[in-house]
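Narrative of accomplishments. A recurring question from our advisory board has been how the design workflow behaves on a single, concrete structure rather than in aggregate. To address it, we present the structure tokens for one chain from the evaluation set, followed by the sequence designed for it. No filtering or post-editing was applied between the two.
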């Protein structure tokens, strides 16, 4: 029988999507140990993912820009807490050091750096999607797994603020959110395709469209705007993460390449059309009604994609993305919103 820990610390530093898919693990911990105090360490800028989550008692924010002495100060504070379990969900060198020197009675982790942990968990990831991976770690610790769906929780005040910002931009009813910006050009769906899709949604489906991007990605939206007859409603990286989460929750549906907005929308079980390029939806996608993965599997270049991308991939002309047609995406959207 598993001894009930009084205090558990989980380390999951980043990123947005990775944090969201770790959320079922926090719920699982609380379902198994309702009276256990659960703390989670995240890097500064990502704490909004866990805000208002009823399963997380304390969010500890680590600011990596403050350097070595901030890290030492954090470790000293962790040792004062005397955690029963410290679980490293991140698997990197910084999270490993935090785990190793945390003073936890039981330290748990996975990956190549076995010396960081008292209990090193090793199992094959094949056949597990990303959410199941973290739950599998808990299962190895003797916990019972009930559900693997993700969740996000938005404060009422944040919802009011985003509704006000939408109203100020002329959006008072339902809208489809298109997150059209990418971090890598190899993941880009062409601006002309987005422009055609927007025109068809607005004229044929009679639904408003809102465009969004992250900070410093405004030029990608500008390329789409230049192809439209009227200026679109846009949020060009000015929203805080918690506001963007609220924006996704308010939307009627989301269209995006495989990125954090997809994980946010899935946490609310929103209708989603997710465009997958190099990454397969088998590992990172979701299985619920009105979640659609658009993916072209039978491409010869997939076998060497991660080792040696084709030259055109770096020019925004990846075959896996250019092969996705406007007609295919529009038809999926039409089914979801009709």
């Amino acid at each position: 029988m598993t001894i009930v820990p009084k205090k558990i610390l989980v380390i999951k530093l980043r990123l947005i999507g990775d944090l969201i898919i770790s959320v079922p693990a926090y719920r699982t911990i609380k379902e198994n140990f309702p009276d256990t105090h659960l703390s989670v360490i995240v890097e500064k800028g990502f704490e909004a993912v866990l805000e208002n989550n009823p399963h997380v008692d304390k969010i500890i924010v680590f600011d990596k820009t403050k350097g070595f002495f901030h890290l030492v100060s954090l470790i000293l504070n962790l040792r004062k807490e005397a955690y029963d379990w410290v679980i490293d969900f991140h698997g990197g060198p910084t999270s490993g050091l935090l785990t190793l020197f945390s003073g936890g009675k039981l330290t748990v982790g996975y990956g190549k750096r076995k010396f960081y942990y008292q209990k090193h968990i090793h199992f094959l990831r094949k056949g597990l999607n990303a959410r199941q991976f973290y739950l599998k770690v808990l299962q190895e610790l003797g916990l019972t797994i009930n559900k693997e769906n993700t969740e996000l929780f938005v404060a009422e005040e944040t919802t009011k603020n985003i509704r006000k910002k939408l109203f100020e931009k002329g959006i008072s009813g339902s809208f489809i959110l298109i997150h059209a910006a990418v971090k890598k050009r190899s993941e880009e769906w062409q601006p002309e395709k987005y422009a055609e899709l927007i025109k068809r949604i607005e004229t044929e489906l009679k639904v408003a469209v809102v465009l969004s991007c992250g900070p410093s990605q405004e030029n990608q939206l500008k390329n789409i705007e230049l192809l439209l007859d009227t200026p679109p409603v846009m949020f060009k990286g000015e929203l805080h993460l918690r506001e963007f989460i609220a924006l996704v929750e308010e939307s009627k549906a989301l269209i995006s390449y495989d990125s954090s907005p997809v994980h946010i929308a899935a946490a609310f079980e929103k209708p989603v059309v997710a465009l997958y390029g190099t990454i397969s939806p088998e590992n990172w996608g979701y299985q619920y009604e009105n979640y659609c993965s658009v993916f072209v599997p039978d491409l010869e270049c997939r076998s060497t994609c991660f080792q040696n991308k084709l030259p055109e991939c770096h020019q925004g002309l990846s075959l896996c993305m250019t092969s996705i047609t406007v007609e295919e995406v529009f038809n999926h959207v039409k089914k979801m919103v009709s």
